[in-house]
């Protein structure tokens, strides 16, 4: 057996090298296809390329983070009395992407075509999020030029959470819901890139297959175009009218307790600007977006699940649970106040 192994060893090394070259070539082909279609920028694993982090209009300070619920067997943290209203729900996706050569019906009614910037695992919360984006890819520089020529400052940001491969074709899987953003500032850089600042506006729903560019094949724009329905609002609450106000009050009270706990640990940090959260208004949806935007490190899939939710009451129930879990974490083992 030892003799056979020694005889086969010289043959195994070339075979392993050949397999590694084939696998590497396939990986490069897949990445090249992603870059060619505008879904991954060179030198990064997501688009758009951004510097810094989410900056909601409510100023955050160190220590205010999303904390998952404790495990049931954790003896130091009592289990949450609130259940996850989104347990078992799956992310919704847009219709399968199309290409400019495919036949896509013209939008009708309140549906309009907007340029869309797909981003892997990046979710933008309506109204309360600002982003700083460095534009260096030619396709997105073309997007800025086209917007400026049309006197328009808005485009859509939508999350890609999965990449499907069929042979050598790489097809993105878009979330069904995204956010319209407006360019508030534009600054040319010395290295030829462009830096823009965008402010989140309303939520939109993709209602038709997004049209993907095919560089070198068609004469269309090099960026993605999608037919969307803008200003997608939450459905009216069908239960007791007072229940919505009650859950809103509970979220408000939990939020203030969390902030009080964090302020003890970081007294020199800037505080949350409660006046911009919209608690005093009758718009429970707007208030829920404001609270959700505070949790900038919440997993992208969870943020997307809340973005696609059309029920403000359900969204507030989940935020109450998150705030409760965060408060228990801040209070330390056993949930007692420190």
Per DSSP E runs of 2 or more residues, the count of β-strands stands at 9
Distance N to C terminus: 68 Å
Query: What is the structural class?
Result: alpha+beta
The dominant shape is: globular
Average pLDDT confidence is 75
Radius of gyration: 24 Å
Q: Kindly report the spatial arrangement of strands forming the biggest sheet.
A: 2-4-6-7-9
Overview of the molecule:
With about 350 residues, the chain is α+β, with helices and mostly antiparallel strands. It has helices at about 1-35, 140-150, 240-265, 285-295, 300-310, 310-330, and strands at about 100, 110-120, 130-135, 155-165, 170-175, 175-190, 195-205, 210, 225-230. The strands form two sheets. Strands 2-4-6-7-9 form a five-stranded mixed β-barrel. Strands 1-8 form a two-stranded parallel sheet. A hairpin with a 2-residue loop joins β4 (about 155-165) and β5 (about 170-175). α3 (about 240-265) runs parallel beside α4 and α3 (about 240-265) runs parallel beside α6 (about 310-330). The longest helix is centred in the N-terminal third of the chain and has 35 residues, at about 1-35. The protein is globular, with a radius of gyration of 24 Å.
């Amino acid at each position: 057996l030892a003799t056979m192994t020694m005889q086969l060893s010289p043959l195994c090394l070339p075979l392993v090298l050949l397999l590694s070259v084939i696998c590497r070539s396939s990986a490069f082909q897949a990445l090249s296809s992603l870059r060619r279609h505008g879904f991954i920028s060179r030198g990064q694993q997501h688009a758009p390329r951004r510097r810094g982090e989410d900056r909601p209009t409510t100023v955050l300070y160190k220590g205010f983070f999303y904390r998952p619920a404790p495990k049931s067997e954790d003896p130091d943290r009592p289990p949450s009395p609130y259940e996850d209203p989104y347990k078992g729900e799956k992310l919704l996706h847009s219709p399968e992407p199309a290409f400019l050569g495919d036949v896509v019906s013209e939008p009708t009614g309140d549906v309009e075509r907007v340029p869309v910037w797909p981003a892997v695992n990046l979710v933008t919360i309506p109204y309360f999020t600002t982003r700083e984006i460095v534009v260096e890819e030619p396709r997105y520089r073309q997007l800025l030029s086209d917007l400026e020529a049309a006197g328009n400052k808005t485009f859509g940001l939508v999350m890609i959470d999965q990449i499907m491969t069929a042979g050598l074709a790489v097809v993105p899987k878009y979330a069904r819901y995204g956010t319209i953003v407006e360019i508030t500032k534009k600054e040319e850089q010395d290295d030829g890139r462009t830096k823009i600042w965008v402010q989140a506006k309303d939520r939109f729903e993709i209602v038709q297959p997004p049209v993907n560019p095919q560089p070198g094949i068609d004469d269309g724009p090099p960026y993605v175009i999608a037919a969307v329905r803008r200003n997608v609002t939450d459905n009216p609450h069908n239960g007791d009218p007072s229940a919505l106000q009650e859950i809103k009050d509970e979220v408000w009270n939990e939020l203030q307790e969390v902030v009080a706990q964090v302020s003890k640990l970081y007294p020199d940090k800037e505080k949350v600007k409660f006046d911009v959260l919209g608690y005093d208004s009758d718009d429970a949806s707007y208030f829920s977006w404001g609270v959700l935007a505070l949790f900038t490190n919440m997993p992208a899939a969870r943020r997307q699940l809340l973005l696609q939710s059309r029920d403000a009451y359900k969204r507030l129930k989940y935020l109450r649970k998150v705030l409760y879990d965060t408060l228990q974490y801040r209070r330390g083992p056993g949930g007692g106040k420190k």
